[in-house]
Every structure is written in structure tokens, then in C-alpha cells.
Design goal:
9-stranded mixed beta sheet
Length: 244
């Protein structure tokens, strides 16, 4: 594969999306296209907007053969890359739940890059690797005001007394596709969340486009009791995927 050096690969002024395929069906394809094209506009990038026909042309030449697959799309000024890769999450991940820690790196809520899925992704990858070495699955970022924002590859939801909370977008986070699904289908309170509120949670679950909805077993030393509301949301999400 030949890649031309441009602003995307020299300065990170490019975008990407990772799309789940379930039984050959692209999940939330329209939402992914809308997000990446909005980012092109908001960031004023010299990139031609992504069309659905391009995605299906690639898919027609690369048929899905597994129950779960992942399509990654990378766009920059001179490059349009479509890559399939293996889906790595297993049922054991959901049974065990994710283990979280708090990153020492701060999200910059004043930077436009925080709100878009760009090729400026170094903090996420390096912090995720650090967490793995410490025995955790996902780091959680705070912003400059010590407010909870998001995980390295996920959005975070907090359950307190059967009410669902998630950080406001203005705190500094990516508006994830499954985050949008949760907010559209459940009564979710978007608010500023601090560490104390997080530690007092009854449940925590994470969302992203690949694992969908992932229960959280612990936040560092804080152990969470068995998920009730979260499990119900996960079951409903699985039914949703079956009926697409």
C-alpha cells in the first residue's frame, strides 16, 4: 500500500472511523459518515467528503466472511484508505467487565481536536498501553478542571440510583456513535462529573463502536456490584443489532 505524504501524515490533519460489521451489516454506517464529514467541515480540511458508494464499492470487493468484522477508514488530503481487521472482543470480556484507572494526562477541552476523531491519537494509544501494563483495560481522562471526560477509546456512563449520567460534550470528549445511541434511547443526564461522583457510582459502563456497551468491574480499587441497569441496556443493544 502506497501512502502519499500530506498534512494528514505530517501533522495529523486527517480523520478515521472504525465501523463494526455484524453478520455482514455495517452498524451505524450513516452516523459514521455524518461524523467524519462534519469533521472535514469543522476542521476545514482539504479532504473530499466520504460517500456511501465508496464504502460499498470496497465491501463488494472484500466480502464479509465472519460474524464480527471491523472496517477502518482513514482519510487525508491525498489518501483514502479502507482496511479490514479482526474483531478482538470476546464474551469473556463482557463477563469479566473492564477495569479502569485514571490517567495522569489531561484532556484539553479548549482544543478542537479533542472533539474529532483525528490522526492526532497518540495520547490515547500511549495511555492505553500504560494502563495495560498496570493491569487495567482502559484509562479515563480528566480535563483541566479535573472533570471526567472519556476513556482512551470509549465514552463513559455512570449509574447512580437508577439514573444514567454521562459527561457533557463541553467537558472535552468525542461524541461517540454508541454514545449517541444511548442518549437517544434512554433518559441520560449530561453533566459535569468529578472523581467523587464517579467513585460513588452504583454502576459504570463504557461505549464504543466496536464492543458496543461494556460493563465496568472496577475503577482502580473501587469494585462495582453486579450490573443491573447496564446488563439490561446491553441485552437491548444486542437485540437492536439483530434487528437492523
Amino acid at each position: 500500500m502506497l501512502i502519499e505524504l500530506d498534512e494528514g501524515y505530517s501533522f495529523g490533519l486527517g480523520l478515521f472511523e472504525t465501523i463494526l460489521f455484524y453478520k455482514g451489516k455495517p452498524i451505524f454506517l450513516d452516523e459514521h459518515l455524518a461524523r467524519i464529514n462534519k469533521s472535514i467541515t469543522d476542521l476545514e480540511l482539504k479532504i473530499e467528503k466520504l460517500k456511501k458508494d465508496e464504502v460499498f464499492q470496497y465491501l463488494n470487493n472484500n466480502k464479509n466472511t465472519l460474524e464480527y468484522e471491523v472496517l477502518k477508514i482513514v482519510l487525508s488530503e491525498k489518501n483514502r484508505i479502507f482496511l479490514k481487521r479482526e474483531y478482538t472482543y470476546t464474551e469473556k470480556d463482557y463477563q469479566k467487565g473492564f477495569s479502569l484507572n485514571i490517567s495522569k494526562v489531561r484532556r484539553n477541552e479548549s482544543s478542537i481536536f479533542t472533539f474529532h476523531k483525528t490522526l492526532n491519537y497518540g495520547d490515547n494509544i500511549l495511555e492505553k498501553r500504560k494502563s495495560k501494563k498496570l493491569g487495567y483495560d482502559e484509562p479515563i481522562f480528566l480535563n483541566s478542571k479535573n472533570q471526567i471526560t472519556e476513556g482512551a477509546t470509549s465514552n463513559i456512563f455512570v449509574v447512580v440510583e437508577d439514573k444514567i449520567y454521562t459527561p457533557k460534550l463541553s467537558c472535552g470528549l468525542l461524541n461517540g456513535i454508541v454514545r449517541q445511541y444511548i442518549i437517544s434511547n434512554y433518559d441520560v443526564i449530561e453533566k459535569e462529573i468529578d472523581i467523587k461522583f464517579l467513585n460513588n457510582a452504583d454502576e459504570i459502563f463504557l461505549t464504543n463502536s466496536l464492543f458496543g456497551i461494556m460493563p465496568v468491574s472496577n475503577l482502580e480499587k473501587k469494585i462495582f456490584k453486579p450490573q443491573k441497569l447496564g446488563k439490561n441496556i446491553i441485552q437491548n443493544y444486542k437485540k437492536y443489532l439483530e434487528n437492523i
